[in-house]
Design a protein that fits this description.
By secondary structure, this protein is α+β, with helices and mostly antiparallel strands. It is built from six helices and 22 strands. The strands form five sheets. It has a seven-stranded antiparallel β-sheet with strand order 5-4-9-1-2-8-6, with helices on one face. The relative contact order is 0.10. The model has no long low-confidence stretch (mean pLDDT 85).
């Protein structure tokens, strides 16, 4: 009806629909080609990120070698996760793509510094009149770009006359050391959505006393932040991490499922704990512990540097190198 036309013989350009950090594959960008033809091995520039296409997939997850105008695809090879809505272009050389990406990143940084709201005399007077004005700085890390944007918009809208919510950084991927350093420097709270902190980031957060909150439902993050702003700082159910384990080897036993041979790196795992399966910093599944053994004997708990075998209820997709995080849910009364 719109009589749209495109030239399939030119270098491809289009829009980024979504981006994410996929377990084991790296950054995945979903693109919609609007003009030209996208080929395997093309050098793509999207927002402040670039890279050579290593693999392409259609909407069914099948490998393809080219994408024509009006068709969507997912690509691997970018060095980061571009934002949904960014335009992408195919460039002739990787050097040119890198230079443009670096210039865009520099401009973005300068723009964020210039647009940062400075306090004027009127604002100081208003805050003194209110008396108890506070600022809440937040860093958001999530598994997909869409979740970052949704959380950012939702949390900023929670600002009131007394409390200003500032999202100082939002990105895709696991919570890293640099996120903790930024949080410590700006007195921020880190909110993770379907991602986990790296081992060094967690230790650094403990040393710097940085608060890291992990969620798998956006409404839980919004409601808890509302409660915190209202003074109800303690949630009704608090999660306490009891142990961190590394999967060394997996065994499949018929009628039982997958048994994971693990070593306890930190803490102490108990039979009644729930377990999170973490792969490349991203939470894959949260399940209950089905069994806990040492050699052939059932045990109630296993401490640091202890090797043990365990199985999870109705979940068999365990791989060598996976990190298992056991935790207890403790009920805490809310305080005003």
């Amino acid at each position: 009806m719109l009589d749209l036309k495109a030239n399939p013989k030119r270098r491809a350009k289009g829009s980024v629909i979504e981006s994410s950090l996929d377990k084991g594959r790296g950054y995945v960008a979903t693109l919609l080609v609007q003009d030209g033809t996208l080929h395997m091995g093309d050098i793509v520039l999207a927002g402040t990120f670039h890279g050579r296409i290593k693999a392409m997939f259609n909407e069914r997850g099948q490998k393809i070698t080219e994408v024509r105008p009006g068709e969507p695809c997912s690509i691997l090879g970018l060095n980061g996760a571009p934002q949904a809505g960014d335009e992408f272009n195919v460039l002739p050389t990787e050097q040119e793509a890198r230079e443009i990406a670096n210039k865009r990143e520099q401009l973005q940084r300068e723009q964020s510094i210039r647009t940062k709201k400075h306090i004027g005399l009127e604002e100081i007077g208003r805050r003194l009149a209110i008396g108890d004005f506070k600022e809440l700085n937040i860093i958001i890390k999530a598994d997909v770009d869409g979740s970052v944007e949704a959380l950012k918009d939702s949390l900023i809208k929670l600002s009131t006359e007394n409390i200003q919510v500032n999202v100082i950084h939002g990105a895709v991927g696991a919570i890293s050391d640099s996120d903790v350093m930024l949080a410590a420097a700006s007195d921020a709270v880190i909110i993770g959505f379907n991602v986990r902190p790296t081992g060094t980031a967690r230790k650094m957060a403990e040393q710097e006393e940085v608060d890291i909150r992990i969620y798998s439902i956006i409404y839980d993050a919004i409601n808890e932040l509302k409660d915190a702003m209202a003074g109800m700082l303690a949630p009704e159910v608090k999660e306490e991490v009891t142990a961190t384990l590394e999967v060394l080897q997996t065994f499949h036993i018929s009628k039982v499922g997958t048994i994971a041979g693990c070593i306890v790196r930190e803490g102490k795992i108990k039979r009644g704990n729930k377990v999170r399966v973490i792969r490349d910093g991203i939470v894959i599944k949260t399940v209950e512990l089905a069994s806990l053994k040492h050699v052939k004997d059932d045990i109630k708990e296993a401490g640091v540097n202890t090797e043990c075998g365990l199985s999870l209820k109705a979940y068999d997709d365990l791989k060598e190198g996976d990190i298992l995080e056991s935790f207890e849910e403790i009920e805490v009364a809310k305080t005003l």
